[in-house]
Amino acid sequence: MKCVRCLHDTARLLTKAPDGSGAWEMYACSRCNFTWRNTEEDEVIKPELRDKKFQFTQEPEDLQILVPIAPLKKK
Amino acid sequence: MFRDLREFLAKLEENGQLVRIKDSIYPEPTIREICRAAVDVPNGPAVIMNNIKGMKGMQIAMNVHGSWANIALMMGLDKDTPVKDQFFNFLEAWDRYPGEIKNIDSDKAPCHEVIVKDNINLFEHIPLFRINKWDAACFFSKSCIVSKDPYDKDNFDTQNVGTYRLQIIGKDQICIQALAFHDIARHVTHAEEQNEPLPVAIALGNDPVLTFMASTPINYDQSEYKYAAAINGIPMEITKALNSDLDVPANAEFVIEGEILPRVRVPEGPFGEFPGSYSGMRLQSVIQVKSISYRKNPIFENLFMGRPWTEIDYLMGLNTSAPLYNQLKESMPEVHAVNAMYQHGLTTIISTKNRFGGYAKSVAFRLSSTPHGISYCKNIILVDEDVDPFNLEQVMWSLSCRVRAEKDVLVIQNTPGMPLDPTSYPAGMGNKFIIDATEPTDPDGLLRDTRLIESPDSKDFEKVIADLQKAAQKA
């Protein structure tokens, strides 16, 4: 299914309400790691209503790395 | 004083500082609405919610440190204790380091009452929710994360217990934000250069002092557990983790164990952060969860961070101020008190004796050269030693009646900055803004001959008036 943030077809069902009540479902995107619950506000979970500033339009690999991966030490 | 979160919640309840929301609520947006309200009321109470849709039988505790009353109770003080008195009380407790450690057998530790190792799904055990509207996912914002330096595994003191934000990205995967200057970043680097996973344990719902210490900037080789014991005044009870040699808080509500995958980075954020704005998205490390353990009827404690002030400001207020005070005091004994409560010290007020002309400005330069002050402390206000830096009315009086703009206001450009500060540009660069609101001393030009109104000796009557007022309120 489509991720509401990065709009790629990389989202899936993550989990359902743990008490078995069917109160909600949660989804997760494997590309941008956004997750959402189907009972949240429309402006959070409907792509057309989401604030464009919080949409993810970059390529994941272009994001900054805050703790650089150190070179491998020779054993 | 408090062996665990439960004992502290009982203390808060006893003092009218804990309330329960029993109405049926959806996790979003209601939890954040409740938390905003709880921190906004005077002396805001902790809140327990236990009727969340889809999460029957689960409970959430919020705003546990969310007022000066709650912080005072954590320190064993009367809930009405003024902040300046809380600061000096905290300094005294700080000097009792190191406190005692008590090892509890793993099978007797409350945090191991229920153990889950197979088919792990965090959402089945913990009532997770989105804290702020534009956060990328559900976050743990108030956990104690334990890790060891892979090159120094037997050293108890360099074992780190820190609070870093954690984004839940799957049933058994969590993304961790480490910044380059965080202690855990050093552990990650040492593991990654050997291509080894780094064991970590995430303790949720801890005694209030451990949580407090996990967000305190102490030295790399000082133990948060020993500090927590010193300040709490009772031994810190720890036990061995189930999957590694880590020491975890024995009385935590939940302990999630896992490993940071070596040389992996994935998208993380945004997240509503302590300056009251959202951080950007970055590539961060991933924790693969190996087990969850918890107490029977566990309480999930988390932290709401909104536009200041919210709980984080109370939680980090005194524990940012105390180390800065100690570092300044070492070389400048004239320093009387430090209030670094504003967004982790982005604005800091120091009361100091202005020993000779211009001396107070040198105190600001010293602050700017402490490890924390280098990047965080950008707006620095100096006031005289008889001005309470925690009393903003007094600070504003000093600004109003002591500052000569042409002599006492300095801007030093292009200094280090704090990357999460939205004014830091490029992220990591900043300026120092210094206001010297102390009385000029010789050989600096003195003020016009000014006679201050002396304060009468009112100490004895403060209690009399306060007690009369309490009685009047009860009547």
Condensed summary:
The complex is a heterodimer of chains A (75) and B (475). Chain A is mostly beta strands.
What would you note in describing this structure?
With 75 residues, chain A is mainly β. Chain A has a domain at 1-51. Chain A has one helix and three strands, in the order βββα. The longest helix of chain A is centred in the middle third of the chain and has 4 residues, at 42-45. The mean pLDDT of chain A is 96. With 475 residues, chain B is an alpha+beta fold. Chain B has two domains: 5-301, Electron Transport, Fmn-binding Protein, Chain A (Pnp Oxidase, Chain A, Roll), CATH 2.30.110.10; 332-436, UbiD C-terminal domain-like (3-Layer(aba) Sandwich). Chain B has helices spanning 5-14, 30-40, 68-74, 83-94, 122-125, 183-192, 208-214, 224-232, 311-331, 359-367, 371-375, 392-402, 405-408, 459-474, and strands at 18-21, 46-49, 59-62, 101-103, 114-116, 139-140, 144-147, 160-162, 166-168, 173-176, 198-204, 236-240, 247-249, 254-260, 266-268, 282-294, 299-301, 335-342, 347-352, 379-383, 409-416, 429-436. In chain B, the strands form four sheets. In chain B, strands 5, 6, 7, 8, 9, 10, 11, 14, 15 and 16 form a ten-stranded antiparallel β-sheet that branches. In chain B, strands 18-19-20-22-21 form a five-stranded mixed β-sheet, sandwiched between helices. Chain B has a four-stranded mixed β-sheet with strand order 1-2-3-17. In chain B, α4 (83-94) packs across α9 and α7 crosses α8. The two termini of chain B are 33 Å apart. Chains A and B meet through β3 of A and α5, α6, β15 and β16 of B.
Uncertain stretches of 5 or more adjacent residues of chain A: none
Structural class of chain B: alpha+beta
Strand order of the largest sheet of chain A: 1-2-3
> How large is the count of helical segments of chain A?
1
Number of strands of chain A: 3
Spatial separation of the terminal alpha carbons of chain B: 33 Å
The Rg value of chain B, from CA coordinates, equals 23 Å
Percent helix of chain A, as a range, is under 10%
Largest sheet of chain B: 10 strands, antiparallel
**Alpha-carbon distance between the termini of chain A?**
44 Å
Poorly predicted ranges of chain B = none
The quaternary state of the protein chains shown equals heterodimer
- Mean pLDDT of chain B, as a whole number? 95
- The percent range for strand residues of chain B is 15-25%
Query: What is the level 1 CATH name of the largest domain in chain B?
Result: Mainly Beta
General shape of chain A: extended
Taken in chain order, the helices and strands of chain A follow as EEEH
